[in-house]
Amino acid sequence: MSLKDKIDPDRLPAHIAIIMDGNGRWARQRGKPRVFGHRHGVTSVRETAEAAAELGINYLTLYAFSTENWKRPRAEVTALMKLLVQTIHKETKTLHDNNIRLLAVGNLDNLPDITHRELMEAIKETAHHDRMAMILALSYSSRWEITRAMNQIASDVKAGIVDPAQINQELISSYMTTKDIPDPELLIRTSGEYRISNFLLWQIAYSELYFTPKYWPEFRKEDLYEAIIDFQKRERRFGKTSEQIVK
Ligand code: IPE
Ligand code: IPE
Ligand code: MG
Q1: 116, 123, 181, 224: least surrounded by Cβ within 10 Å?
Q2: pLDDT (tens digit, 9 = 90+) per residue, 65-92?
Q3: pLDDT at 247
Q4: Which residues, 6+ apart, have CB-to-CB distance to 144 below 8 Å?
Q5: How many angstroms does the Cα of residue 156 sit away from the middle of ligand 2?
Q6: Which ligand 2 atom minimizes the distance to the CA of 195?
Q7: Is 21 marked active-site?
C-alpha cells in the first residue's frame, strides 16, 4: 500500500498552510550560497502544489516571505525578489496545467514593481481555475495583518459603516487578508523549528500543527502525504470531550 493510498479522501483538510523553512541551511550543508537553497525550494513548491491539487485540497497557503525577512542582507532580499519574478513567470504553466488559481496575501505594495506586476499578472491569468487556490504569503506577517484589520475596523466605525456592537469573530475575520478563505486545518513547518514566526496567528486558533525536520528543498509529495496521514489520526475536539466527538 503506497503512502497516498493510506489517505482517507473523505477526511482531507480543505486548507493546508506551510511555513517553508530551511532553504539556507540546506544550501550551507552542501557548501553553497543560501540562494541556491531558495532556487531548489521552487521544485518543492511545484511538487507540493501538484500533490495537493491531485488529492483534492481546496486551499494551499505558502509562507514565502515574511515582513521580518526584509531585514535580511540586501543581496539575499534582492535575489529572492528576482527569483519570485522568474518563478511566477515560469510556473504559471504549472498552475494552468493543474487548474490552480494563484492568490496572494501580505503587504504587496512593498514588493519591487516588477515582482508586483508579475504577481498581479499571474493572479489575473489564473483567476478562472477552480481545482485549488494556491495562496502566497508575501511580505506577510500576522501582526501586520491584524493591525491593518484593526485600523480598518476603527475607520469604518468612525465612518458609521460598522456599529461597534456588530464586532464579533466573523466580522474580524472578514477584515483579514484571508477573508473568504477557510481557516487552515493543518499547518506544516519544515526544518525542525518549532515556532510560528508571525504566520496566520488569528487563523490557526484550532489548526493541527505538524513539524518535520526536513529542510524545505527536500520536501516532496510523500512528505505532504505523511503530514496528512498524521493529521487524519488526530482527534479534533475544539474544547469538547472525546465522548462528545465520538458519536
Ligand atoms: C525559508 O528558508 C525561506 C525564506 C524565509 C524566504 P530560510 O531562508 O529561512 O532558510 P534557513 O531557515 O535560514 O535555513
Ligand atoms: C519564516 O521563516 C518565514 C518564511 C518561511 C517565509 P524564517 O526563517 O524567516 O523564520 P525564523 O526567523 O527562523 O523564525
Ligand atoms: Mg528560516
Answers
A1: 123
A2: 999 999 999 999 999 999 999 999 999 9
A3: 65
A4: 67, 106, 107
A5: 33
A6: 14
A7: yes
